[in-house]
Write a structure and sequence with these properties.
By secondary structure, the chain is of the alpha+beta class. The chain has 9 helices and 17 strands.
């Protein structure tokens, strides 16, 4: 007998037919009140050594169908180690995962999940450092805290937000790695940074969407990264309260952490399309990129999003809105759901560990920019 379930944190799947292990048909559920869907996370219980053919039959209608090209699903037996399923294929309509299980229970996910319990642990452990304060800025529509970590007391204000899009779980893995290094009192770079700046970190902008198993939206089906021009408590309290805190304390540098479904690279996207974009901001961007390139082989600048012409920026997007509002360096950092094509890993693809390492390495470009502010 085969049993498939998604009744847990960040779970998302609908069973169409699982009567035959070699012809299992599944669908991904839409985000609530939204057309977006692509994140999946489910558990399969079947006798070990069962050959499973899992077919997600609505993959061809998902939010970003090019993301399935070259994609390998993530699987785990212990929910700690997430490996890639090499026999993953997409025919333009159906995503098929062929897998023979070594144990009676196996989990599958679009990317290695970052659970709400781990999120709460991250916040609780962070506040134990004497240099850190944990603050709740307000509540989400589902009544969860919008949590902020304030770290250090330096004069410059550096903001980092992650998981506006909840399915981009690599973003919170990134923040975890960043915080681990920032809190390391034996690391001279971390010590120097905390003398220069105060860090304001929101590890998960969208806890409701994360728990609900959404790809891109909050509990109300709102894409938070299109709310930064006019957020509201009724629809986007997450942005409303975070932007309000920014107005209260100021912003000298802003980093918004994301994942990209299609491009198999790590890259940044700036605010070149803003009317307020200046030569000074461009020079800071170059300093940031050059420093990151010098310390982190996983970062690159050849591939990324097209640069917008000046005056054509979407001002509802966080990077553009914050960069313009505070006349500061603002970057969106993107990581792949697939793998880093420059340095591929056949076992894990792009992974939590590499996301954490990328987060640790970002201290270098932050420091290089702060020296020029």
């Amino acid at each position: 007998m085969i049993k498939i379930s998604d009744n847990f944190d960040s779970g998302n799947i609908r069973v169409v037919d699982c009567s035959n292990s070699n012809d299992i048909k599944l669908e991904i559920k839409n985000d609530n009140d939204s057309e977006f869907f692509q994140w999946f996370h489910f558990r399969v219980q079947a006798p070990k050594d069962t050959r499973l053919k899992l077919q997600i039959i609505n993959a061809g209608k998902s939010a970003y169908t090019p993301g399935w090209e070259g994609y390998k699903a993530c699987a785990s037996y212990d929910r700690e180690e997430w490996f890639r399923v090499d026999e993953t294929s997409f025919d333009g309509e159906t995503l098929t995962i062929d897998f023979e299980n070594d144990f009676n229970t196996v989990y599958f996910a679009y990317f290695a999940p970052y659970s709400h319990e781990r999120h709460l642990d991250l916040l609780s452990l962070a506040q134990l450092d004497s240099r850190c304060e944990l603050e709740s800025l307000g509540e989400t529509l589902d009544g969860r805290d919008i949590s902020l970590l304030k770290i250090g007391n330096g004069p410059k204000k550096v903001w980092m937000t992650a998981r506006q899009h909840p399915g981009e779980s690599m973003a919170e893995w990134f923040v975890e790695g960043f915080l681990e290094r920032l809190f390391d009192s034996t690391d001279s770079l971390s010590t120097s940074l905390l003398e220069k700046a105060t860090f304001y970190v929101v590890p998960n902008m969208n806890p409701d969407g994360s728990v609900r198993g959404h790809l891109r939206t909050n509990a109300a089906g709102i894409n938070l990264n299109r709310e930064w021009q006019a957020p509201s408590i009724e629809k986007s309290p997450e942005v409303f309260f975070v932007r309000g805190k920014m107005d209260e304390v100021g912003v000298d540098m802003f980093l918004d952490i994301h994942g990209d479904e299609n491009l198999p690279y790590n890259f940044v996207a700036g605010s070149e399309g803003n009317l307020s974009y200046t030569k000074e901001i461009e020079e800071l961007e170059n300093t940031f990129k050059d420093s990151y390139l010098s310390v982190c082989p996983d970062f690159q600048t050849k591939f990324g999003y097209d640069i917008e012409a000046k005056g054509e920026a979407n001002m509802t997007v966080a990077t553009n809105a914050v960069g313009d509002r505070f006349n500061c360096l603002a970057y969106t950092l993107e990581m792949p759901f697939k793998d880093n094509a420059d340095l591929p890993c056949s076992i894990y693809g792009w992974s939590p560990r590499r996301s954490q390492n990328l987060g640790r390495d970002i201290l270098h470009p932050i420091y290089s920019v702060l020296k020029k502010l």
